[in-house]
Amino acid sequence: MNNLKLKIFVVSMLIFNGLLTAQTNYKPTWESLDARPIPDWFQDAKFGIFIHWGPYSVPAWSPKGTYSEWYQYWLQNKTLYGNGNFKGDEIVNYHENTYGKDYSYYNFGEMFKAGLFEPDEWVQLFENAGAKYIVLTSKHHDGYALWPNKEANDRGFAWNSMEVGPKRDLVGELTTAVKKTNIKMGLYYSLYEWYHPLWQSDKKRFVDEHFLPQIKDLVTKYSPDILWADGEWDMEAEKWKSKEFLAWLFNESVAKDHIVINDRWGKGVRKHHGGYFTTEYEAEAPEFKRPWEECRGMGFSFGYNQNEDAQDYNSPKALVLTLVNIVSTGGNLLLDIGPDARGNIPVIMQERLLQIGSWLNTNGEAIYGSRLWNNSFQWSLKGEKNYKPKQHYLGGDVILKQTIDPEPGYAVKELFFTQNSEAHFVILPQWKSEITIRNFKVSNKAKITLLATQQNLKGQQMGNDFVISLPEYKPNLFKATDDYAYVIKITK
């Protein structure tokens, strides 16, 4: 009898495991791939750090309002695009005046030394910033690989960090340092390369002989937690064979059980298929049905741009309010830094990260692991209309105009909201003696606390609204970073 029960149990487990395997055998269709769940850690993380670093970090220059990591494209195509009015020859003129007319972009590979790169120091900074994940550009559109890879050399010369420039495996070193911590390691990878011979002459061969083996090598060597695709927009997913690749990634790769992907896998795919959705220099997102992430720089450029001055960088208050705005609408902020060619993270970027980290150290309870409330934010009743900017790439000044520095006649976001299983959180862009949360009812047993000082606050139900009184503001009770935004916790 016991043997019979044991046999039944074993057979049952085999059937169960077979069903489980069948359920996780993803097919190369969007219907199947989109059904793969995105792990909770990603939605809980809320704050990540993007790192753009490569040969473009050598010239590290472009006009304000443009991306310096596009230096090669601006140079060779004699064009320019971004926020501002450009003639198109600005990069060409700068390059010829600085390096000479016949100086090739590919010479920057040898100049990209990364001699000051200390991965453990980088990671310590990221931990102090309160980041829960990072995404490093393993290869940007110029094709330079930050790891030893044979496909990087199939253009006819070596073009990877182990053979050209640093003579180091930059992806491997940073991955090793990150994996000593609780931070998740992500890798950005550009599907296309501007001037690869096969991309220009035979895109099918480029996909089969370059893209697919190279991206599989990246995943196999480093087993990243995130694979952040980009440079997908010139071809449909079918031509990229993205769905076949993703089926391999989810079914067979070394990262199949934990990897997270974004949505940039072919022309027209973004914000429709893949993993989490991505925005870039946008305001709060519409109501996506999937987790999402906004990426942007501290200034404007993603790659280090020595042409940007202090006034071009967002203030720490603007960056914290940007984070709050995005998190209140259910998203993550992937905030970019651009190290210089030596591997040094510019001091102003370090300072901003530490300022954000200080604020999160006090108020992270309202950010990490939070989810949408009924309303993401509350507009003031004053003003004729809500402020929505018109420019293509939205700078950090937008959130300031929407909160503390409004244009005449416009309303402001006076409160932001998040919640977790234990409490609601109300986030104030500026100090007030009293706030009114419209259409919100609170339990008589709720405890109301100001996170910055742990002071208990008093609240009163006024019909459908709830009014909270704040104490007299005493500067000595607050640290400098508390001023970026104040958080009130209301227990459930």
Automatic annotation (TrEMBL):
Gene Ontology terms describing biological process: fucose metabolic process; glycoside catabolic process
The Glycoside hydrolase family 29 N-terminal domain, residue ranges: 20-365
EC number: 3.2.1.51
Site keyed May be important for catalysis: positions: C295
Pfam families on file: Alpha_L_fucos
GO CC annotation, single: lysosome
Classification via InterPro entries: FUC_metazoa-typ (IPR016286), GH (IPR017853), Glyco_hydro_29 (IPR000933), Glyco_hydro_29_N (IPR057739), Glyco_hydro_b (IPR013780)
Main EC class the enzyme belongs to: hydrolase
Signal peptide annotation: 1-22
Gene3D superfamilies per the UniProt record, alphabetical: Glycosidases, Golgi alpha-mannosidase II
Keywords annotated in UniProt: Glycosidase, Hydrolase, Signal
GO MF term list: alpha-L-fucosidase activity
Stated family: Belongs to the glycosyl hydrolase 29 family.
Job of this protein: Alpha-L-fucosidase is responsible for hydrolyzing the alpha-1,6-linked fucose joined to the reducing-end N-acetylglucosamine of the carbohydrate moieties of glycoproteins.
UniProt-recorded name of the protein: alpha-L-fucosidase
